[in-house]
Amino acid sequence: MAEPAGGRPVTVSDVQQLVRRKDEIEAQIKACYELLEGQKGVGMHEPLVDAEGFPRADIDLYQVRTARHNIICLQNDHKALMKQVEEALHKLHAREKEKQAKDEAEALAEALSQQQSLPQAFAKVNAVTPGSPASVSGLQVDDEIVEFGSVNANNFQNLQNIAMVVQHSEGRPLSVTVIRGGRRVHVGLTPKRWAGKGLLG
């Protein structure tokens, strides 16, 4: 099984199958060697004839010859299989690398497109007093403000703009849009008098 049918990519189960086959061949080789051991320890190279050149009578020549032949064939199969395992693993790793690179590229592209579609922020929340109208509305420290009522990046000049909007909107809900953690979040904020300073806190 050099290449899975239909030229499809190598999978982990293909590799596992190759490894199982390799284990089977190794077990067969071991069994053949054990058989040779059982025949008075004749290995792969001991002579099969006696001193006078007659076939040895103390061993089963047929069994020994067959075992030796099988070992040679199995070792060749084993070598070829190891090459296949190596190639399959190589392909598998190359595909994993490719997939990882593709995933990273997609994640990067998505992050970039999100950044591009996010509006321009003109101010950043650096403090929110607990219990204040800002806190109650859900504003958080590090929120980047992109819209505060009618104020946005295009018409914002200074914080006085925000102060004006707040004074004119006392007791009325204001639509505030912020960027939080790379996402656009809408907050309903009602400026009003509270225990602390100002109408927002």
Automatic annotation (TrEMBL):
<dbReference type="GO" id="GO:0005634">
    <property type="term" value="C:nucleus"/>
</dbReference>
<dbReference type="InterPro" id="IPR035269">
    <property type="entry name" value="PSMD9"/>
</dbReference>
<dbReference type="Pfam" id="PF17820">
    <property type="entry name" value="PDZ_6"/>
</dbReference>
<dbReference type="InterPro" id="IPR040815">
    <property type="entry name" value="Nas2_N"/>
</dbReference>
<comment type="subunit">
    <text>Interacts with PSMC3. Part of a transient complex (modulator) containing PSMD9, PSMC6 and PSMC3 formed during the assembly of the 26S proteasome.</text>
</comment>
<dbReference type="GO" id="GO:0005737">
    <property type="term" value="C:cytoplasm"/>
</dbReference>
<feature type="coiled-coil region">
    <location>
        <begin position="82"/>
        <end position="118"/>
    </location>
</feature>
<protein>
    <recommendedName>
        <fullName>26S proteasome non-ATPase regulatory subunit 9</fullName>
    </recommendedName>
</protein>
<keyword id="KW-0175">Coiled coil</keyword>
<dbReference type="InterPro" id="IPR036034">
    <property type="entry name" value="PDZ_sf"/>
</dbReference>
<dbReference type="InterPro" id="IPR041489">
    <property type="entry name" value="PDZ_6"/>
</dbReference>
<dbReference type="Pfam" id="PF18265">
    <property type="entry name" value="Nas2_N"/>
</dbReference>
<dbReference type="InterPro" id="IPR001478">
    <property type="entry name" value="PDZ"/>
</dbReference>
<dbReference type="GO" id="GO:0070682">
    <property type="term" value="P:proteasome regulatory particle assembly"/>
</dbReference>
<feature type="domain" description="PDZ">
    <location>
        <begin position="108"/>
        <end position="182"/>
    </location>
</feature>
<keyword id="KW-0143">Chaperone</keyword>
<comment type="similarity">
    <text>Belongs to the proteasome subunit p27 family.</text>
</comment>
<comment type="function">
    <text>Acts as a chaperone during the assembly of the 26S proteasome, specifically of the base subcomplex of the PA700/19S regulatory complex (RC). During the base subcomplex assembly is part of an intermediate PSMD9:PSMC6:PSMC3 module, also known as modulator trimer complex; PSMD9 is released during the further base assembly process.</text>
</comment>
